[in-house]
Amino acid sequence: MRVLLASLLASTVVVPLSATERAVVVLVPTASDDRLVPVREAIQFWNDRLTELGLDLRIGFPEVRVADPLARSLETYARAVATRAIQQLPTGVFEPDPPEAFTRLGGDIILLLSGQDIMSYAWPLPRVEPRRHFVVIRMARGPYRSDSMVSSHVVAHEIGHTLGLTHNDEVHTLMCGPCQPLTAETDETGFLPLTETERARLVDLHGTR
To answer: How far apart are CA 148 and CA 185, in angstroms?
Structure first.
């Protein structure tokens, strides 16, 4: 199993020793899950962009946990958060406390490759310091479930939120909301582009002060 995961995730994700690293923990139902490669590609995309911008921040090589028993409580919490968002319930003090599993997992970004067909999202864990994020990537069913490009963009989009980016109204960009994926074309990176405003935002948030 470890050999298989190494072949799926190991590649060119290089984190300079001088960089600040965001630790990522990935929970996945099986070692053969076809979303693992898109996770690697999305992390590589962001590390390339952060390097281009001269920022001392990287997304770390993910720690992958296969069929971890802690995933059950995270799946329940993921459903609760998604339901509250759909119902537009208030956040803040009204949000349910994150399960104890988050404390046991550690990591700055907990990325759940969910077994549920729910919305994908990035969620700042409430009342937790320092700030940590819970990223949920849905188990897609239908004609696009095996499209790695779709999955790569979804993961990259959600990681973008953990870096402080919000949705924009440019429908052919990575952080679009809403998007028009059927008419969008990737750039030389293989991903939809960031806007100049988003690049400036990243520098403002993560540059040397």
So the answer is: 15
- Tell me the C-alpha distance between 155 and 120, whole Å: 9
pTM: predicted TM-score of the whole model, two decimal places: 0.86
Q: What is the pLDDT along the chain (209 residues), one digit of tens a residue?
A: 333 333 333 333 333 334 699 999 999 999 999 999 999 999 999 999 999 999 999 999 999 999 999 999 999 999 999 988 777 666 665 677 889 999 899 899 999 999 998 999 999 998 777 789 999 999 866 555 556 678 899 999 999 999 999 999 999 999 998 888 777 888 889 999 999 999 999 999 999 75
| Distance in angstroms (rounded) separating the CA atoms of residues 49 and 46 | 5
Q: Which two tokens stand for residue 70?
A: 């802690």
Q: Which fold has domain 2-165?
A: Collagenase (Catalytic Domain) (3.40.390)
147 touches 136 (CB < 8 A): no
